[in-house]
Amino acid sequence: MSPATAGTGASRLVNAVLLPGFHGTVPPPWLLDAVDAGLAGVVYFAHNVPDPKTAASLSAALLARRADLIVASDEEGGDVTRLEAATGSSYPGNGALGQVDDTDITERVARAIGHDLRTAGIGLNLAPDVDVNADPDNPVIGVRAFGADAALVARHSAAYVRGMQAAGVAACAKHFPGHGDTAVDSHLRVPQLDADLDLLRRRDLVPFAAAIEAGSRCLMTGHIRALPFGDAPASLNPEAARLAREELGFTGAVVTDALDMGAVLLDPGFGPACVQAVLGGADLLCLGNPESPEAAETAYRTARDALLDAVADGVLPTGRLADAGRRARELAGWISQARDTAPPPKEEGLPLAVAREALRVRGNVALSSPPYVIDLRQRVNHASGSRAPHLNRLLAEAMPGLTTTGVPAEGPTAARADTALQGSAGRPLVVLAREPHRDEAETALLRELVARRPDAVVVLTGWPHAVDALAANTVVTYGSARVNAQAAVERLLGGTPHGG
What we know:
The structure is a single chain. By secondary structure, the protein is an alpha/beta fold. It has helices spanning 8-15, 29-36, 52-65, 94-100, 103-119, 150-166, 197-213, 238-247, 262-265, 270-279, 293-312, 318-339, 350-358, 390-398, 413-421, 440-452, 467-470, 482-492; strands at residues 18-19, 41-43, 70-73, 124-125, 172-176, 192-193, 218-221, 225-226, 253-256, 285-286, 360-362, 372-375, 403-405, 429-433, 457-460, 473-476. Helix 13 (350-358) crosses helix 18 and helix 14 (390-398) packs parallel to helix 18 (482-492). Residues 37-327 form the Glycoside hydrolase family 3 N-terminal domain. This is Hydrolase.
């Protein structure tokens, strides 16, 4: 069915559940037309908000078009930031907050992030990540989680929700029913969560229950195949939504993870996934981050037309769409009311203090002169879209004369080490790593480098895991944000965790 032949009522019902991404810092014509036709909202990615002033201007233009539009983004702090993608986040992420384990600090950091989002005109933060990172080999959660203990994750999830919503920005707990005990990145294919319902209740659902109890206005379903729900990913599965609503008592809006991710893009496909998600209980469809302006418009039209066709064919009841739209409007109403309140004052100095407190330092890590830096971090972080160069940049600024090199992607371990170490003789050696425990070749290379240079300082931006068995001199930051890097550089220059 083409939009021209679709009824106005059906079109508005369909638009009321869509959260598309778009390209640029000025709303394109197709997006403004969709806003006029009842679009639920938009999702910002880094290319939309290159700086705070541009972000605020973009939001003002959209909200002038329609004041109840939901403007969303995922500003987790730490490794995942949109507002500070170019420089790295000025806030420690969940891994560092969980390491410090002070819920008052977590609440204050979330409130500060919320302050920045309010200033940018963003009313829905697709955060916090409340996954319990139970699988050390998890390729996409890692330090985005508060930790691997359900009780710890739960208390910090609740604190984050309280802080974010105290700033007048709606929080969204993700990725239901839990992405932590998986070994596959849902950006690429469907992860399998093999926990039975009893384990889910004892572990993965505990933080979601805490976030809901704290008043989280939104909940994001993940593209995760969970054992108790059958084959369909939770984002497309009515059993997942039923569990959230009937067992956990969630009454807010359910939003999907981005529907352009590999986990659902190949099977069942983008348009069918949109229909299945609404049938599965989703109230808002996050359409994702298309690669070009043309792809963004195509994604929106494909989603809209797939839903319109499903209505026309009797596959998608208008009652289900109306129910979803009602919850989306309730969320928009909460955001609009919050926007009328004064934002809390911004607490300066806290983020760096937290990043310093989170550092775990072992051995002799102070550098006497500009070091030779070997960066082992080759894998792109699909959640943040980067390899996080902030540590390299801050080190280079602090120590002119520093040399940075990578490593050959392939070859025998000894040969790769030979190449990486060329030019390092007589200089302090720093090795940057993120998750060597997930890659046997990277672990072998790190072990070889440290065997040749026992004085090497290993700076690890992920969880420590087995790094102590590999190196005597380590700095663990629990995140790749700029503020984590700043705290690490201070230590490498001879400072203390508290800046003394």
